[in-house]
Amino acid sequence: MAELLASAGYDFVQVDGQHSAFNRESLTSLFQAIKLGGAKSFIRVDSSEDRPGIQQAFDCGADGILVPCIRTADDCRRVVSFAKLPGATGLEGTRSMYVNLRQTFHVGAGIPGTITTYNDINKHTIIAIQIETKEAVENLDEILAVPGIDIALIGPGDLNSSLGLLGAHGFGAFTHPEFFAAVQKVATLCPKYGVIPGFFNSDLKQCNSMGFKFIIHNSDAELLRHGLEVSLTSSLTALNEGVTDPIWTPRPYRPDPSDV
Prior knowledge:
Blueprint: H1 2-7, E1 12-16, H2 24-36, E2 40-44, H3 51-59, E3 64-67, H4 73-83, H5 102-105, H6 111-117, E4 126-131, H7 134-138, H8 140-144, E5 151-154, H9 156-162, H10 165-169, H11 177-189, E6 196-200, H12 204-210, E7 214-216, H13 220-240
Parallel strand pairs: 1-2, 2-3, 3-4, 4-5, 5-6, 6-7
């Protein structure tokens, strides 16, 4: 699936390590497959305190990380420290290095390749953060000013939940003026700090009109569900064409709990 998605023309494919179950061995295979498909690989880690997860993401070959539930500038500084090597100054970050990781340095394993490219590694380490809490919106200037943050992506579901809109308005939360104001704030402030604004949103036209450049357009589960629905509907239409009584009708998409 990862290679198929990467080969389909997407610029990047994100692996969800926050809400899905992956081990380190499977992550390495996924990142290799995405690279083979020609796309960049991202992984959503657990949190801004997930030093092991951030370390392993890059050791396993990810091009970038997406960090959820950011609330303060200190959260961002911690993420940058975990993601960056000490670098030329020794002060850029605190991430551990290991010389025999091909997927980290892309030049072949061993000390010569590692040392030769060491000062360039941090330039290729992409850090994206999720703006999905009320505190993050309130602290947005300070968050975006943290050096090393490349992308700030809106997580609409959790943001609406944090703002208290989801419980009060249901799906209406996504068109609520308070939510729109938060979205607009991210779109407006990101360019001021040289950060790319991002959105988890399938409406590409709306995202583009507001200035969002990094867009998570869909999920593998939703793409599969939609593809199955279209395929089944098309097949049944052809099967039942010209008959009074349908030859076959599918069962409901979600089974009755009593049938499980």
